[in-house]
Write a structure and sequence with these properties.
Layout (H helix, E strand, L loop, with lengths): L12 E6 L8 E8 L9 E8 L7 H12 L18 E4 L2 E4 L12 E4 L6 E3 L2 E2 L2 H9 L20 H8 L15 H6 L5 H12 L7 H8 L13 H5 L6 H15 L2
Parallel strand pairs: 1-3, 2-6
Antiparallel strand pairs: 2-3, 4-5, 4-6, 7-8
Length: 260
């Protein structure tokens, strides 16, 4: 069996322990990945004892409490707190998810927080999503129509046509799916990944879009599309209950029918 190990300078080491205040009764231990490139040191795992009696129920509530009251050096992204913006995506207890809608009570034992896996790191829980967003932009995620719109109304769809794009349009670009995919880990320079391919599918099946042929031509590549091996991690990781794996399979099916 093959064994893989992190490079020596990437292996996390033990860090600091921040004890809860005296008298705290409902204490949970948060073990958080810390990395500061300016220090030139290995990552470390800092531990924080949090009194849940004075903290909100979600993982993001605990992170904000740590940032505001215990350790202001901790870095993470957050915005909406409603599972809409995707900013607080991270690896929670070994699974990718959104900190704002992940309840501390759903995690047994110590709560371990790491950044989204297999991405370049900026600091602590903040990964570099430059390549992820570039891949999304590469599929041209906007309506492409050559026919002018009607002068007196919008471009209309039937209910059935709208339902085809309804769920794929709910993607919040949190990157939970792509960073849970082993194919994306090893080939992120060429494989577009589940999030970008889900967005591509959304426009391919949009009845108002007139560039489906060009979109399919751009995807018909051994790496961009076919590096997907239907592992299904992406669908399991999606916090919005979307199914990127099914969308990718349908793109493959469309291409197969087109070549007949």
């Amino acid at each position: 069996m093959a064994e893989f190990s992190l490079p020596r300078n990437s292996k996390p080491k033990g860090g600091r322990l921040f004890k809860a205040s005296a008298g705290a009764k409902q204490v949970r231990l948060f073990k958080i990945y810390r990395y500061d490139p300016d220090l030139g040191e290995n990552p470390r795992i800092d531990s924080y004892e949090i009194d849940m009696d004075s903290c909100g129920p979600m993982v993001l509530d605990a992170l904000i409490k740590i940032k505001n009251e215990i350790d202001s050096t901790l870095s993470f992204r957050r915005s909406c707190r409603e599972g809409i913006c995707g900013s607080c995506a991270m690896n929670i207890d070994g699974k990718n998810g959104l900190a704002c809608i992940s309840a501390c009570a759903d995690v047994k034992g110590d709560i371990k927080l790491y950044p989204l896996p297999h991405l370049p790191m900026i600091k602590d829980l903040v990964p570099d999503l430059t390549n992820f967003y570039a891949q999304y932009a590469a599929i041209k995620p906007w309506l492409q129509a050559r026919t002018p719109p009607p002068p007196d109304r919008e471009r209309l769809q039937t209910k059935e046509e709208q339902e085809k794009v309804d769920r794929p349009s709910a993607c919040i670009l949190c990157a939970c799916c792509s960073t849970s995919c082993p194919s994306y880990w090893w080939n992120s320079d060429r494989y577009l990944g589940p999030a970008a391919l889900l967005a591509a599918y959304r426009w391919i099946v949009d009845s108002r879009d007139e560039a489906a042929g060009e979109r399919l031509d751009q995807l018909e590549d051994p790496f961009r599309l076919y590096r997907c091996h239907t592992i299904m991690n992406c669908t399991e990781a999606c916090p919005k209950d979307l199914n990127p794996a099914k969308a990718i399979a349908e793109i493959k099916q469309i291409l197969a029918h087109r070549s007949l």
